[in-house]
Each structure stands twice: as structure tokens, then as C-alpha cells.
Amino acid sequence: MVKFTAVALALLLSGVAQAQTRIGEVSTTFRLVGPNDKVLVERYDDPKVDGVSCYVSRADTGGLSGAVGLAEDPSRFSIACRAVGAVRIKGEIDRGKKGEEVFSERTSFIFKSMRVTRFFDAEKQSLVYLVWSTKLIDGSPYNAVAVVPLNS
């Protein structure tokens, strides 16, 4: 119970959303021992923008190391963000060139995470979402972008 409370508090204080919903998964590699390698599809709702959901597909490494959370997942992602209702920005969002991190999820035990950063394109009145990876020593150049127009 204490662990659950600490995790919930950390999520509230971070301001970064976790995957609200796992939409589905497909097995890609059979593993004789432990779970199979998979491609996961997850939905993340933007916490500061009503009516926008991002769907991210990502690799999930199985086997024994994956079963106990020690595997490092590949840094290859796909993202599709869509208006799923009336788009309305709640409060203030970061409109600077560095954007604002809106989602983050660990993809290895300690050193690596998948992140989604939101940028605001003032000229085209659009929100641009970038999925990318960080790693303690070196990041990954693999990334993907999705755009949601504000005036659709």
C-alpha cells in the first residue's frame, strides 16, 4: 500500500501523464521461456488539451529479462495524435522552441525512457507531438511526429 501511494504521489507531482489505456498488442517473436516480444499500442490523452489523444506503438522486449522488468526495449516508436472531440487548450501550454514534455514511460529498468513532447506551431495553429527516446549515456535518433490542427 505504501508503494502504491508513493507511485501515485510521484505521478501527481510530475504533471506527466502515463498511458491511460493499452489498446492492444501483437506478438512479434516467440520466446520459449518468458513472455514473447510484442508491439504494444497505447493511448495517451494530453493532460492540458481536451479532445486530443495520442496513439503510440512501441516494442516491448519479452523473455526472462522482460518478465522481471530488466529488459531494454528498442527505441523505435510510431505516434498518431488525433482530435477525438472538441480541441480546447486548458490553461497555459509551453509555446517555446523546446516544447513541453507531456508523456513519459520507462523502456528499461533504469536508464532509458520514451517521451512525447508537445510543440505549438503558432503560424499554422497546430500542436505537434514528437515521440523520442532518452538514454543515460546516449539517446536514440529514432523518432516520429504527429500534428493536430487547432482550427479543423
UniProtKB/TrEMBL annotation:
<protein>
    <recommendedName>
        <fullName>CreA family protein</fullName>
    </recommendedName>
</protein>
<dbReference type="Pfam" id="PF05981">
    <property type="entry name" value="CreA"/>
</dbReference>
<feature type="signal peptide">
    <location>
        <begin position="1"/>
        <end position="19"/>
    </location>
</feature>
<dbReference type="InterPro" id="IPR010292">
    <property type="entry name" value="Uncharacterised_CreA"/>
</dbReference>
<keyword id="KW-0732">Signal</keyword>
<dbReference type="GO" id="GO:0005829">
    <property type="term" value="C:cytosol"/>
</dbReference>
